Amino acid sequence: MKVESHNTRENLKLILENKVDYAMISLVDYFRNKEFLKLIHGPTITGLRHSMSNLLISKGEDPVDNMRIAVTEQTETTAFFLRLVLDKTFRDSKLIRSREHTYDKLLAEENYALLIGDSALSVYETSLRIIYDVTHMFTTLYGLYSIYAVTVSNRKSTVPSEFPEDFNVMPWEKRRMAAKTQTGVSIGILERYFDVISYNFDSVLESHIGKLENLYKQNSDRIFSS
Length: 226
Fold this sequence. Notes:
Number of strands: 10
Low-confidence stretches: none
Strand content: 15-25%
CATH class of the largest domain: Alpha Beta
CATH topology of the largest domain: D-Maltodextrin-Binding Protein, domain 2
Helix content: 25-40%
Radius of gyration: 17 Å
Order of helices and strands: HEHEEEEHEHEHEHEHHEH
Shape: globular
Distance between the termini: 44 Å
Structural class: alpha+beta
Number of domains: 2
Largest sheet: 5 strands, antiparallel
């Protein structure tokens, strides 16, 4: 199997154009394009207990009920999970879209920020305050896995709905993550990250995807403040 590495937005474009057999895309992008896509029994990116890479942070401020939270443009799935968490903790808080993605630039816009990926992992070696690991809070409050990405195919495609059993996503993911040491994320942080992320797909995960889709339909128009 030939494997190409792209971000999830590029993957979405490729799979909608039916230029690849399978693609890993964000959970929210799957919900939005479900009429064109088929969920595959293949790799996911799922936080089982916590994820380390989806964080609500501040420069030191305590969380309050009217937080304005700058949200990196790199995610809508994590923003969806955070909105649901805030509904049960600090309901009047607002998520504000930003074109930035690093913690310094996001915190220059608002007192609170939602980070994902590299930017979130880099926070562990700073003095910034971590208010929530979004995965941990969402799972605690809702009893559901935080599923960030799923594997899909185009509905027009004739590829099998079962992903090839001999494909192991971990070497590819570790190769991608190893490059993060170049950006200052330590090996120790990366090792801890791999311990709390799952790439598996099973019937429990599939049922949770269905429940998450219902929550998304109920809340999609109120994730961000205008």
